[in-house]
Structures are given as C-alpha cells and as structure tokens.
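Friendly challenge for the regulars: who can give me the structure tokens for this chain first? No prize, just bragging rights.
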Amino acid sequence: MAFNFEKLEVYQEAVEFANELYSLTKKFPPEEVFGLTTQLRRAGVSVALNIAEGSGRLKKEFRQFLRVARTSIYECIAILQVSLKQKYLSTEEYEQFYARGDQLVKRINALIRSISL
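First reply, four minutes later:
Bragging rights claimed.
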C-alpha cells in the first residue's frame, strides 16, 4: 500500500533531487557541514516534505504547500550559486542541478494549475 503523494511523479522527482543534493554535498569541505551543506540538504528535503504534507490537506492548503516547495527549490539554486563561486562544485554540476530545479519548478507549477481548476 502506498500513500497518495507517493504516486505523484513530482514527489518522486523531488525525493530524487534531494538524494542527489545529499550526494553532491558529501564532497563539500568539512567546515561547511553546519553552513552550506546543511542548508542545501534541508532546502532539498523540504521540497519533498511540503509536497507530501500538503497532499493531505484541502486543495487551497495543498497549493500553498506546493508554493513553499517551489520556494525551497529557489533556495537550493541560490545555495548552489554560492557553492559554485566557492568552487565546491563544477560548472557542469551546477548546470545539471539548475536544470533539475527548473524542471521541478515547472512540474510544481503545473500541479498548482491543475489543482486550481
């Protein structure tokens, strides 16, 4: 048996995004463990958490949780930009995560629109 949110492709993609962020941050320097590493991991996990939690709410509330999930992606992008400037990740890695974040935002926006109908 599965919870309804687990069937959502956007949720599955959000979980994968968070897992990939965890893998990426394993190579960040130790002095960032309480800085960018933790902040990026928390923001990444927040995307999936908000989709899951919101799915059990009324439509209006679910849309708000989806908006929060979307802003967590924006937070990830900002942290990834700082991480790139600090040379904690390559330009290629940044571009891959940027594209994944952009795709997730588009999927979340589509879900928000479909709930609004």
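The chain has a mean pLDDT of 96. Residues 4-23+32-116 form a domain with the de novo design (two linked rop proteins) fold (CATH 1.20.1440.60). Your move, everyone else.
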